[in-house]
Amino acid sequence: MKNHTPGGEPEMETKMTDFDIDTHLQRMQRDGYTIIEDFLSADDLREVRAGLAPYLNTHAGRNNFEGYKTERVYTLVARDRIFENLAEEPRVLALLDKLLLPGYLLTASQAICIHPGETPQPLHADDMFYRVPRPRPAISISTIVAVDAFTAENGGTEILPGSHAWSDADVAGVYDGFDHDTVAHQALIKQLIPVRMPAGACVVFAGTLLHRGGANVGHTPRLAFSNQYCEPWARTQENFFLGVPPQLAREMSPRVQQLLGYSIWPPFMGQVTARHPMKALDPDWIAPVSSKKP
After folding, report:
1. What is the pTM of this model?
2. How many Cα atoms sit within 13 Å of 294 on the Cβ side?
3. Which class in CATH covers the domain with range 9-268?
4. Where are the domains of the chain?
5. 3-state secondary structure of 135
6. Using CA atoms, how far apart are residues 291 and 16, in angstroms rounded to an integer?
7. In 57-117, alpha helices (H)
């Protein structure tokens, strides 16, 4: 069981005391996003960089959406203890408790390093693959934490405020323009604004909000990481049961285990052969189904 929390327990208690959740929720409702300016301390940032160092400068994206000059480190929650801790950061969970149903899940956890020369990412919403008609409440909530300061030049995230409340007709240009430009798509692009925030800040936004990673026209990389969370009944983007070895999941906190899917959405979604999935983390667990047929 871990005893480390980002920034240390006394500092985190102070941050929670000073955290004006109502103001952040009002911003989320009005604009579709909010920014927690003091999300990470200088010590946290150093720990994040150290945790990412073994995985960077090893590969690049495979398509225009991942970014040909962008590095992504998936299944980040299991890469280092700092990322496990940050997946259950108390201020984020306090917001999620108000925005999603109890038992919500971690749906994606990744680091993103946008290098100079990268082009803009296609415009999208993070929960656009849930084929539920808009307008609707967000099925997922995303966070992006700036490890490097976000600027308009270095590939900082660009957002379209208020688009979280748009209908299917309003966002039709996004779907039409995902693979090719259209007049409607270009009209949406012109409404984007850059998210400018210092290193250590975190932007939290609705999965229905239109956004993209910006072009990096600067001279240095822009490093960030993103945790995304979804309703407990929704399918997750990452399959953490396969991505996180049981021996690692077994050592994680109960809350992170729940976020990874070792939990039940009542009455029995997520069960493992009529058993609670937490039983699968027992050291002496034997799967009820044999690998060999009789």
Report:
1. 0.92
2. 1
3. mainly beta
4. 9-268
5. coil
6. 48
7. 81-87, 90-99
